[in-house]
Amino acid sequence: MSSNTKHTPKRFSVIIPLYNKAAEVEATVRSVLAQTLQPAEIVVVDDGSTDSSAAIVEAIGSPLVRLIRQANAGECAARNRAMAEATGDWFALVDADDRWKPQFLEEVSEMIDLWPHCGIYSTAFDIVSPTGIVRAKTPTVRGPVENFWKESMTSYVTIPSATVLARRAVEEVGGFPEGMKMGGDQFMWIKVASRYGVCFSPKALCDYSMVASNRSSAIYTPEQTPYRLEDFLKEALWDEEQERWRREFVAKCAIGKALTLTAKGDEEFGRRVVANFGYTEHYRRGLRKLKVLLALPRRMRPWAHRTYNRLAWLLAHKGL
User: Which residue from 160, 151, 155, 182 is spatially nearest to 258, judged by alpha carbons?
Assistant: First the structure.
């Protein structure tokens, strides 16, 4: 489909959760306003910011922007509130410190025209790191992903800021897991991809920032949520191969989350993950890292976790 092809009309509602992103949010919103295919609306939910974030959004002055204020309830709750208030048939997610290239919505619209029955539409993205811009490792084929779970073990298929959700899929599976401070996006992908196809474009049309202020992983507080990744082990997909890889992906998500939380002092969460997800065959390295972290004195865990991640990044990107 060429760039001159007319798109079937669609109502994209852009969903932006906002918490203390005064330094970044204007650039995020303006990257949405610069889209070659304009959205129907941009719904920004200010989740109890204590800085000037909300005032900056108001000052943009676009009739497309709707600002909603609520008491701090977390990113998942903010996304759910935005989707509940939105009027569109497609929820285009972007975090308040990331940016879209101008063709993001146009590319997603083309994919919807070609493959209308999927529940998730995503694109490749660039990582804005402290040492430069790096192209993320993503699939290389445009269209429905044959095995989302297997592909996601070794590459990024979905991240919040490069993903559009079909309203019908969200209404069927429910929203993001409120109260979950980390991994709420992955929890949502698992719910939707268990029932709908995932469509991907290898065009890098999003900039994901690792250098923004107020990174969620840096300000973790204990979770209070009824949602657990173990919930997915109680159900099975109809296809045995898909289910086998889904279990591996769920384990990878749980172990990755446990590494961060264990480093921050949540030893109980780490030990629970070792007990429930020790079955993994394809993420043994992560499981070993978690076991080593749990064996270290608590005061050493943050340092060990930061050091390992830094070295892994440098080695993977050859010093970038």
Answer: 182
